[in-house]
Write a structure and sequence with these properties.
The complex is a heterodimer of chains A (about 475) and B (about 200).
Chain A: H1 8-16, H2 19-43, H3 46-62, H4 64-77, E1 81-85, H5 88-101, E2 106-109, H6 113-117, H7 120-126, E3 130-133, H8 136-144, H9 160-170, H10 183-200, E4 203-206, E5 210-212, E6 217-222, H11 226-232, E7 236-242, E8 246-247, H12 250-264, E9 272-276, E10 290-296, H13 319-322, H14 327-330, H15 341-352, H16 354-357, H17 369-373, H18 380-393, H19 399-412, H20 415-433, E11 438-439, H21 446-450, E12 454-455, H22 462-468
Parallel strand pairs in A: 1-10, 2-3, 2-4, 4-7, 5-8, 7-10
Antiparallel strand pairs in A: 5-6, 6-9, 11-12
Chain B: H1 3-14, H2 34-44, E1 48-52, H3 58-68, E2 74-76, H4 81-84, E3 93-95, E4 104-108, E5 111-113, E6 118-122, E7 137-143, E8 147-148, H5 151-158, E9 165-169, E10 174-175, E11 183-184, E12 191-197
Parallel strand pairs in B: 1-12, 2-3, 4-7, 5-8, 7-12
Antiparallel strand pairs in B: 5-6, 6-9, 10-11
Classes of the chains: A alpha/beta (about 475), B alpha/beta (about 200).
């Protein structure tokens, strides 16, 4: 199931009719937004933390060139390697080359959204290398051949009976009559099956939540510990991440960590935060022998200096989608892109281009909740408005609204015509409403009227009534 | 042009002005006793915390923890000489191989963070990082005096250059990936017991 972002309006209709998705979304809402609120209240002065976080990320984006060079210098000094990729294709090629040189046949993977962005798994499979996702959610959807539906809860759309069915199909070496009704049994089974995969893997690929330039370090945040087993057990560790993840030093990372986990799952900190600097030292027996960092641009640098630059501050917490009325109604798959919700609406046109992503910035009521909850205060509605203007300028905007707005503008600039039209409209609507006082249907507006009535005007315009006073 | 040169030149060409240097952040101070706050937060994060008078009490505490959990009287010890030197006696079998997913293992955390109830491990030849993720039960030892208020304080003490891996560990491994409901013991330890040693 790989939905096309260009079909977003149709995908939305399918998603709205999906009752299982609806109950999964309800669960997501109570868990993430309620926990977030509690954890922020517990912290106290979250506002100063947000301001500092915003300043740290802004400064980093403005000095991305020097920070990346410093990061590279420090990774290299620790016998690690830094690779640069302009496009998804370049990133995939770089990773395949590293894996071929390491003689790798199987690869375990920690959760990385950049890997979804560049569709790495498909590329590796075609090259004869088996990627194994190890984050529980990612593992489940990999077995099902689905993309993630949320950036931090990739399998939230599934119910436990669907997970059980998936495991029965995939884990054929286990007793077919085993009990899989409890969540704990499912987690235990994944633990057992994946532990063997960690040990057998030739290489491990993780993402990075942050990079510290001063230390040449990659930082990952996880709850399961899969990212760490992915780094520590195989001989080669590859960090795959976007160029914008770098900040100056670990003290800045400490500030962003406080923002990230509270805004994401509402945890004060996740079970594991790992700071990974190069391969194992000469006398260490544990950890990877080879350490690579692949820095992916994929349209990010082109956003600098534009009205969309602020989206590069994003720390991928998912608070915006967890509080978005649109995401919360349709889920992530409908977007047909790696990043759904307000984050996707502000980022996707820059990453995959306007032709593919032009519907996403329209998927907003501009209620402003996303900007309110964003830990680094990204003006998401403003960026979406910027993309909407681009959509119109490129002639990609849907024909009907453009035509309707042009019609309205034509009348609005001609007061006599506008007054005449309004008088007709008020009278026609009053006549249609009849004694009910409410209009129950209008042509071309079936969807709107399916769940509501339109209170009828009183038969005269405001100006008519005013003149009579 | 190479990808590296291309990306860097795009960044240099496009960036507009310079944003101000971010001000240094000062985390809200921890009210009250650091050890109490650490124990409180670690307990909320599903770790069990025991306070011991001295390092000499560790072996008995470990034996008691294993008994309480109906586990075999056997623990895996890393090459860390400070752990090996404890008065283990003969009641517990000591293993020196890497622990498996149902084994118990002991580790000594050089630091801990009061703010979040977090243990901090630094990797070294005798303190292998993977040991914090392999076992089913991790028993951590930390000196009360090494519990510092914030991550920033710990980073200042760890010093530069950083070890190849630093692991911040808060409670046992967990996942909410199935129906957003918390389950412990996803890939790492299913349980974490922290022994805070006063002296």
């Amino acid at each position: 199931m790989n939905l096309d972002p260009r079909n977003f309006p149709q995908n939305v209709h399918t998603a709205l009719g999906d009752t299982r998705l609806k109950s999964a979304l309800a669960r997501l809402k109570t868990h993430f937004s309620v926990s977030r609120k509690k954890s922020i209240a517990r912290f106290g002065d979250f506002e100063t933390l947000r301001e500092t976080g915003r300043a740290i990320r802004d400064h980093a984006i403005e000095h991305l060139d020097t920070l990346l060079e410093t990061f590279e210098k420090n990774v290299t000094a620790r016998c690690g390697h830094v690779h640069w990729a302009r496009t998804p294709a370049e990133a995939c090629e770089i990773i395949l080359t590293i894996l071929r040189e390491a003689g790798a046949k199987t690869v375990t993977k920690g959760k990385t959204m950049v890997s979804e962005e560049i569709d790495l798994n498909t590329y590796l499979e075609e090259a004869g290398i088996a990627p194994v996702e190890t984050d529980l959610g990612e593992y489940i959807i990999q077995l099902r051949g689905e993309p993630p539906s949320h950036i931090i809860a990739p399998a939230f759309h599934l119910h436990k009976d669907q997970v059980a069915e998936t495991f029965r199909k995939a884990h054929t070496t286990l007793d077919p009559d085993r009990a899989l009704t409890e969540r704990s049994a499912l987690v235990g089974e994944a633990r057992t099956m994946l532990r063997a995969r960690f040990a057998a893997a030739d290489a491990g690929i993780t993402g990075a939540n942050f990079l510290s330039a001063a230390d040449g370090a990659a930082v990952i945040v996880t709850n399961e510990g899969n990212g760490d087993l992915t780094r520590l057990l195989p001989k080669t560790h590859i960090v795959l991440t976007g160029i914008e993840k770098v900040v100056a030093n670990m003290d800045e990372v400490a500030v962003l960590l406080r923002l990230l986990t509270r805004s994401a799952t509402g945890q004060d900190i996740t079970s594991y935060v790992s700071v990974m600097t190069g391969p194992r030292a000469a006398d260490e027996t544990d950890g990877p022998q080879n350490f690579h960092v692949v820095l992916v641009d994929h349209g990010r640098s082109d956003l600098i200096g534009t009205e969309a630059q602020d989206i590069l501050r994003c720390i991928r917490c998912s608070a915006c989608m967890n509080h978005c009325p649109i995401y919360m109604a349709v889920g992530g798959h409908a977007y047909g892109a790696t990043y759904p919700g307000p984050l996707g609406a502000a980022l996707n046109p820059g990453l995959i281009g306007m032709a593919l992503a032009h519907h996403h910035p329209n998927a907003s009521t501009f209620c402003g909740r996303c900007e309110e909850v964003c830990p680094v205060k990204i003006p998401l509605p403003k960026i979406m408005r910027h993309w909407r203007a681009q959509e119109y300028a490129k002639g990609l905007a849907p024909k009907m609204p453009v035509f309707a707005l042009a019609l309205w503008a034509f009348a609005a600039k001609r007061p006599t015509l506008y007054k005449f039209g309004a008088r007709i409209g008020a009278r026609v609507l009053k006549f249609m409403a009849g004694r009910r006082g409410a209009v129950r249907a209008l042509p071309l507006k079936n969807g709107w009227f399916a769940v509501r009535d339109f209170p009828a005007p009183q038969g005269q315009t405001f100006q008519e009534m005013w003149r009579r006073r | 042009m190479s990808a590296r040169a291309d990306i860097l030149s795009t960044i240099r060409m496009r960036r507009t002005g310079s944003k101000p240097q971010p001000s240094r952040y000062k985390a809200p101070p921890i009210a009250g006793d650091q050890v109490e706050r650490f124990a409180e937060r670690a307990t909320i994060e599903a770790a069990e915390v025991r306070i011991l008078g001295s390092l000499g009490e560790v072996p008995d505490a470990v034996a008691d923890i294993l008994r309480a959990r109906n586990m075999a009287a056997s623990v895996h010890l890393p090459p860390d000489a400070r752990i090996g030197a404890l008065p283990w006696g003969t009641a517990i079998a000591l293993e020196h191989t890497a622990p498996g997913p149902n084994d118990a293992a002991v580790a000594l955390a050089p630091f801990a963070i009061a703010e979040t109830g977090t243990l901090v491990y630094t990797s070294a030849p005798d303190t292998p990082a993977s040991w914090h993720f392999r076992p089913g039960l991790e028993i951590a030892i930390v000196a009360a005096g090494n519990i510092l208020p914030h991550l920033e304080d710990v980073l200042a003490r760890v010093g530069k250059p950083l070890p190849s891996t630093i692991n911040l560990v808060t409670g046992p491994s967990r996942t909410g990936d199935i129906e957003q409901t918390l389950e412990l013991g996803a890939h790492g330890p299913k349980a974490l017991v922290i022994l805070v040693v006063k002296n």
